[in-house]
Recover the amino acids of this structure.
């Protein structure tokens, strides 16, 4: 009986060993069958046996088998890292949560000081003649009332001077006064008339003086191409970018904003020495800067708080003590490249000449208190008419749409589109991949 049991045990052990050996051979053969060889430089080249690449001649190496098998499944904890950058962003950026409360609906814009066209005066020639000497060299050259503009030779002025000298010795008082008045109408000053009577000589080089103070220009057709806003200083209607702080119209924030209005730089005048001019020909325009314009751009949603007659605060960022209140005098709509925005203009009194045309300014408007669920402007990425934030979920940032209901300076009211305890990225712009588009999961 013992011999039978012993022989049975040996038979079982032999059967098990043979079974394991067959399984190992099967596994080895399967692995061998799956083994492929490829070129390190040309992955498209595949072979069942070692050899050389037919393209570059390099030795083929075993290709790794990435087919699904035991241990090859992606773990759930890594799945989020394998999604494209336009759907999920991995970052350690600082996070915030929305703030409930009330804020003052004020807006801050960046703008520029421009000349006021309401103080534009024209200088035209009263006589025909030739310019002998020109004292005005470039546009926006500053002149004072009574300063010399040019010396001209004019037959009309020569004849009028000869009449004055003749009537001085041979005419009546009435005729002499009439000769004086004729010279005044031809552009002569009382001092020039007195000098002629005192010297008794005719001046063939007659000086023309400015009747106004300000800055010389040659009008909108030369000094600055007139824009659709009607200003001769705005060079063109720029394409929009925007901001709530136009300072955003951008402040490095997540808003597209319209650029500040531009001021024309000085360029040479077209009038030259030796040029012949005719009576009535317009020579120059003189812009008086005792009043200037504060100009800036605004987006359509900001216009309700920027009505004509509304008072705004204008300040100069580089001059802390320079600030004043002004009233809006013009709201001019623009539409360009599929974007709507408006030019806002306010009149600023400038008797002390502290405000300089071309100077950058900051404009602030103040509204009423508004209760809401607030996010900083940097946390919201504006994509045309849609706004996006990056919510933190499972250690990564996922984009999601929000709805902006109101603005208060650098804060945006997103209402109930985000819960007050939601954690999101403080700077949404920082998470945008330059080679990807943001895809929001709907």
């Amino acid at each position: 009986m013992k011999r039978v049991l012993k022989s049975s045990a040996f038979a079982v052990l032999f059967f098990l060993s043979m079974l394991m050996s067959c399984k190992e051979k099967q596994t080895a053969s399967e692995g061998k069958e799956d083994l492929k060889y490829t070129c390190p430089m040309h992955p498209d080249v595949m072979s069942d046996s070692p050899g050389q690449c037919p393209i570059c001649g390099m030795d083929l190496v075993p290709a790794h088998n990435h087919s699904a098998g035991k241990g090859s499944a992606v773990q759930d904890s890594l799945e989020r890292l394998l999604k494209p950058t336009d759907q999920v962003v991995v970052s350690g950026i600082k996070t915030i949560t929305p703030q409930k409360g009330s804020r003052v609906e004020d807006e801050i814009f960046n703008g520029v000081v421009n000349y006021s066209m309401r103080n534009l005066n024209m200088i035209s020639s009263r006589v025909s003649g030739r310019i002998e000497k020109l004292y005005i060299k470039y546009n926006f050259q500053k002149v004072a009332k009574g300063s010399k503009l040019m010396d001209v030779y004019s037959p009309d002025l020569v004849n009028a001077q000869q009449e004055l000298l003749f009537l001085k010795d041979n005419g009546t008082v009435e005729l002499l006064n009439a000769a004086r008045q004729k010279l005044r109408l031809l552009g002569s000053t009382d001092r020039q008339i007195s000098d002629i009577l005192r010297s008794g000589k005719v001046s063939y080089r007659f000086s023309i003086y400015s009747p106004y103070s300000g800055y010389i220009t040659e009008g909108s057709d030369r000094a600055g191409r007139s824009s659709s806003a009607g200003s001769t200083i705005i060079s063109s209607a720029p394409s929009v970018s925007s901001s709530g702080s136009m300072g955003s119209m951008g402040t490095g924030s997540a808003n597209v904003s319209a650029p500040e209005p531009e001021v024309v730089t000085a360029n040479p005048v077209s009038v030259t020495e030796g040029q012949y001019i005719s009576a009535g020909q317009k020579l120059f325009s003189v812009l008086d800067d005792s009043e200037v314009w504060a100009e800036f751009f605004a987006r359509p949603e900001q216009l309700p708080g920027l009505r004509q007659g509304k008072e705004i605060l204008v300040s100069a960022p580089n001059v802390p003590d320079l600030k004043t209140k002004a009233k809006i005098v013009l709201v001019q709509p623009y539409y360009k490249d599929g974007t709507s925005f408006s030019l806002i203009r306010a009149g600023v009194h400038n008797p002390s000449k502290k405000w300089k045309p071309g100077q950058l300014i900051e404009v602030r408007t103040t509204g009423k208190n508004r209760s809401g669920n607030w996010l900083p402007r940097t946390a919201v990425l504006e994509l045309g008419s849609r706004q996006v934030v990056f919510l933190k979920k499972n250690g990564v940032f996922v984009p999601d749409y929000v709805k902006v209901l109101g603005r208060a300076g650098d804060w945006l009211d997103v209402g109930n589109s985000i819960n007050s305890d939601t954690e999101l990225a403080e700077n949404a712009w920082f998470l945008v991949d330059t080679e990807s588009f943001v895809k929001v999961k709907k």
